[in-house]
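YM 10:42: tRNA dimethylallyltransferase sequence, as discussed on the call
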Amino acid sequence: MFAPVASIIALVGPTAVGKTKLGVQLAKSLQSEVISIDSLQCYKDGSIISAKVKPEEADGIVHHLVDYVDAQDEPHTFIQDAIDCIRDIHSRGRVPILVGGSTSLTIPILQAAVEDGKNPFIIILGDTPSNLEIRIRKRVDEMVQEGLLRELFGLYKLEKALLEGPHFSRGIWKVIGYREFYPCFTMPRTDREQFSELMAQCLARLKTETVLYANKQVNWACDTLVPFLQTMKIPHVRLQVDGQFTGENVMAKAARSCASHSAA
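YM 10:58: structure's back
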């Protein structure tokens, strides 16, 4: 039921739960490659705000479906692109590692993979709401240090050049953070104190909206993803993350959990 017959392994979970790191470790332990299942990391722009894997984090592991869609476009071919990547990785004798938490792409891709004759195994990662919130707030602070505000202002200038106005539901500008910081882009910077106060308010909104989105992802996994997996008879386990998780022992824990569920 587990790794011997699984032709795809998917790590699914809310933002900031640790999917990227575990995906890399898992891919290294299996000598495989990662397919990003994220509707925003596919864009060429917005690397910081969409939390794309950094080169040093990837550690030599190939990541597919990242950085290939223009800012103003929609990833209409994403599902077929994912299936093509899965087939390509299989052709090289490897088990693809799907990593993501997209509530719009995960189920269609798994459905298409099953229809394509693949046997996925799903690991649903979770953590307590308080731990997730701590991680999210820390991540946003790290993004600011990495140049988030400069990147967002660059997206504002790109939007003006390409679309001539705000489009919060189109392309990369859908990303959480752009709408929240938009008042900063249009406010005169003559009053530095007032501008700093506005920046702090926007940053607080970004953290709040990201926490809300993570909660939405958790609820989606419980209410929509798990029933889908049960209906499709796709083997899956739910694991709470902890500081001891690595690519090696996440599979061991998943295997033990799967065995205990099978024996029950």
